Amino acid sequence: MSGRSGRRAEARRLEEMALNASGAFQSLLYDGWLLGHRAGPTKRLRCINPTYRSSLPLEQKLAYCTDFYRTAGLPAIFRMLPFAQPVGLDAFLAERGWSEFERTLVLRAGLAAAIALPAPAVEVELVAMMAWVEATRALLGIASEALPRLLDRAANYPLPQIGALVRRGDEVVACGLAKVEEDHVGLFAVHTAPSLRGQGLGRAVVGALLADAQRRGARTAYLQVTAQNAAALALYRRFGFDTAYDYWYRARQGEQH
Questions:
Q1: CATH classification of 109-241 is 3.40.630.30, yes or no?
Q2: What does the pLDDT read at residue 113?
C-alpha cells in the first residue's frame, strides 16, 4: 500500500471508529453514503457521510438526499472528507450553491509520548458512563428531554468507555470521556466551566483518560476539534497531537446549523 493510500485507509478507519464512538447507528446506508438522521445538536450524527465508493448519478443522489432530510425534518448537510466519494463531489456541491462551513481537524497522538506530560495537581475521578451522564448534566447543558436518550446510549454502547470528572465541592467543573476500539481511544466532550479555564483542569482530564486507555491496551489517541478553537488546540498540542486530516460541512443557505 502506497504512502498516500495508506494514510487515506487509516483516516477512513479513524472515521469509522469516531462514528462508532458517537453512536452513529441511527442511519441509512445509500449507495456508499451513510445518511445519519439522529436529531440533535451534533451535526456529524445528522448529516451525509460520503465515505465509500459511489455508483449512482450524482444528480439522482443529491435529489434523494435532500428529499430524505426534508421528510425527516432536518437540514440537508454533507460532511466532506479528503477521501469523500466520488472524487469531485465537493466541487459538484459548491457549483450548486452548497456553501462550506465549520472546518474541523481530526488530531492523532501516540499514547506513550502523550502520557509522559507532567500532570497538574488536580484530582480526576474516573466513573462509569451512566454516572458520568448524570453528573455532567449541568456542566454540558443537557436538556431534560435528552437525558433518557443519552442514558440509553451509554447503557447499550458495546465497547469499553469511561468518563472523567473534576469536582469543586458538589459541583462538576470539568469533564471528558474516552471510548476504546481495538488499540485506539477517542476523546470526546472534554469541557471545563468557563470561569475555571486556564487552571489545568482540562489537561488533568485528558491526561487521566489517556493513562486509563493505555492500561486498557490503547496505543493511539484521536479526537476532533474545530479549526478555530485555539485554546483546545493548544491543550492537545501539548500532548503531542498532530493533525491527521480535516473535514468540513456543506449545506444550502439557511441550513448551515
A1: yes
A2: 81
